[in-house]
User: What shape does this take?
Amino acid sequence: MFSQLNPQLIHNLERLGLTENEAKAYVGVVSLRETTAREVHELTNVPRAKIYEVLKVLAKKGYLEIRQGSPTYFRAVDPKQVIGKIKDEFINCAIEALDQLNELSYELPKTSPVWCIQSEWGIKNRIREILSGVKEELIVFASSPEILQEFEADLKKLEKTCRLTFIVNELDRFKLLPFEFRETTKEFSDFMNNIVIDGLQYDEQFFMIADGKESIGVHSAGNKREAVVIKLPVVCYLQKMIYNRVLEPSFIKKDLNSV
Amino acid sequence: MFSQLNPQLIHNLERLGLTENEAKAYVGVVSLRETTAREVHELTNVPRAKIYEVLKVLAKKGYLEIRQGSPTYFRAVDPKQVIGKIKDEFINCAIEALDQLNELSYELPKTSPVWCIQSEWGIKNRIREILSGVKEELIVFASSPEILQEFEADLKKLEKTCRLTFIVNELDRFKLLPFEFRETTKEFSDFMNNIVIDGLQYDEQFFMIADGKESIGVHSAGNKREAVVIKLPVVCYLQKMIYNRVLEPSFIKKDLNSV
DNA sequence: ATCTATTGTTACTTTAGGGGTAACAAATGT
DNA sequence: ACATTTGTTACCCCTAAAGTAACAATAGAT
Assistant: This one.
C-alpha cells in the first residue's frame, strides 16, 4: 500500500551515495529477504519499469545477489557487509582527499587579523583551537551558561596552567558551573543585550580574549549567529580594558587596575 | 591559466558531498590560503558570477571563514578539521542506516539454493562467508593462483580443522603457495577453458565445495566475471564426484574412490 | 567630482541525472 | 490460443547545478 518504508532510512542511504530508487529497492529486498522485482516494486512504489534496471545496478555494486529465471529472484547481501563496504570506500576517499589537500599548503598560514565564522560547527571548532593555544591568560564573557558547559572540560584543564577570568551578567545562572565568576554592572549587560546597528539587533553571547592578543566573540545579529575572530593585539587590549572596567567594582582585582 | 587543480582531488571532494564548483572553490581557497573571490575564480575557472554564492555556501557549512569588506576575503578552515567533520557525519549516517536496516530483518534468512553474484567485491565477500562456515571438508579448484593467494590466510587456518583438497590444472603455477595440490587431467582442463554456450565463452576460474553441500564457482562469461552459489546437496555431490574423477589417477586417494 | 575598474548581484539558458509513464515484446501458465 | 506476468524501450518531466550576460554598487584614480 502506501509506502511502509522508513523515510529516514531512505534518506540515510541516499546520503551514503544511493539514488532514491536504489535506496528504496535495497530496503525492499532486505525487507522481503528473497524476492522478485514485482514484489519489490509493490512494496516500494518504485515504478515497475524502473525496478529491473535499479536492481541490476545494485547487483553490479555487489549489494544484491541474483537468481536468474523468470521471474528473476533477488536476495540482499548482509547490510553489515554492504554498509561496511560503502563506509570503507568513503573513508579511503576522505583520507586521499586530505592528503591531497595537505600537499597544497606550500605557504605558511598568513594569519589575517579578523575573520568571520558563519557556521555553528566552525565557531566551536575555532573556539577549541584558540583554547588549545592559550599560554597565560584567558578572559571569558558569557551571557548564558550553555556555551561554557560545552567547553567545561577544556576550560577546567586550562585552569591549571593559566589565569582564567570569567565574566557573566547574572551570577545565579552560572552557579552550576565549577568556576569562579565575576559579575558585570547592570548597565553593561543591558547595553550588551541591546545593541542595534542598521536596524539589526545584535546580541553578544560569548566573548573570549586569549593572552591579550587574540579574541573571539559570538553574537547573533538578526536571526543569524556568527563569530568574529580578531587577532590585533591593540584591539584585544582595548577589549580587555573594557571588560575590566565593567566588572562590579567590588570584584575588580588590584593587578587588573594597574594594567 | 588552464586549471592547475588536481582533478582527482576535485573528484574525491565531490564524492564527499561537495558540488563540483564547491570542491574547486574550496581547493582554490586552500591553495591561496587567504584570498578574494576573484582570485579563487581565476585559479579555478568557476564562473565569477557563481563564485560568491559558492563561497557563501562553503562558509555556511563551516569550511571557510570570511573577512567582510570590499573585496571580501576568504580563508580555509584546516582541511583536517573539514574532512574530519564530513567523515564523522558520514559515519554517523552509516551507523544509523545499518541499525535501521537490521530492524527490517524480522524473518530468518530463507536460504535459496542458487544465487548469482555480479560484483568482484560481492564474490570475495561470499567466498569468505562460505570459508568461515566450513566444518569438515573443503574441495577447491583454481585455474590460477591469484584467487588462492587472496584467501591464503583463511585457507591456512581451515587446514587445521578440516580436510582440504586443492585441485589445479598446472601444478607448476601454484608451487609458491603452501598447500598440497593435485592435478587434473589434461582433457579436463582443456574442457574447462573452452566451454562455449550460446556463443559465449565460459572460463571456469575457481570452484569450491564446502562440506559437500554448498558450492561457489567463479567464471567469466564473455567479458563479465560472475559467481554462482549453489546450496543443493545433490548438485554439490555430483560436482564433487566430477572433481574426484578428473584428478590425475596417480593422485586419487583410496577413500575418495570409495565414495 | 567624475570617470573607470572592480566587486557583487540578478536573471536567464543549458545540461545531465534521476524519476515517472506508456506501450510493447517475450516468456509463462492456463 | 489466450491471458497474465515478466522484462524492455522510448519517451517526458523536473530539478540541481553549471554556464552566460548584463547590471548595480563600490572603490580607486585622474
User: Anything to note?
Assistant: Chain B has a mean pLDDT of 81. Chain B touches chain A through 60 residues (CB under 8 Å). The radius of gyration of chain B is 28 Å.
